[in-house]
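Support reply, case 0932

Customer input (verbatim):
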Amino acid sequence: MKQESLTTILEHYKDGTITLPQALNELKDFPTKDLSFAQLDTHRQIRTGYPEVIYCAGKTPEQLHAIMEFLLTKQSDILATRADNAHFEAVKPLSEKFIYDQISRTITLRRDPSHPLTETAIAVVTAGTSDIPVAEEAAVTAELFGNKVIRIYDVGVAGLHRVMNKIELLRSAKVIIAVAGMEGALPSVLGGLIDAPIIACPTSVGYGASFHGLSALLTMLNSCAAGISVVNIDNGFGAGYMAGKINRL
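Our regenerated output:
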């Protein structure tokens, strides 16, 4: 439930447009909705500015259908991460506005696509093409929550001239998400070139001794460049969410 929706209910009760029982009926699922297998947080957008986001991995298509059916009555924008085709097929009959992106593995719904994005931008940067799925999860998350996003892909440290070719575009961003696997050096390079805060997102891309992203994670945590924070391995959603909060300060 958005804050303006709650305000509308209270104002309608105050001016007599709706009765007390009607107002209570509108608020019956506030602040949570019990679906037995899920406790949906209808209060989250009022508290944090962002609505509940659904993590699909481990949920059955039937469970996701029930969750989405309820959220459609409470939220204007909906984001589900780590979704597969079966999840999308389960929710598609609920609304023709649901969009499934196979690269980012997200299901999104935006009731008002014309809503203006921020003037300042988030740059989502990848070291390699193989990092794009995690980067797209970050980009889709940031965009759904109203942020302008600049995508700069495949500019890793194996060819530093690629970063330098994009340096002015990078410097125009208010915050940068640097997505990298292998040795995870990209955030350190950007941290020495750019004054914007950098959110480093390690990916599980790499050969055996990358340990499914642990190598990149440790490199990013031990960066000698200041102004870098780090999210968990493959956590594009977390990076996009945090970048959006910074961009809107």
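We compared this against your earlier run and they match. Two observations from our side: The two ends are 22 Å apart (CA to CA). Residues 31-110 form one domain. Please reopen the case if you see a mismatch on your end.
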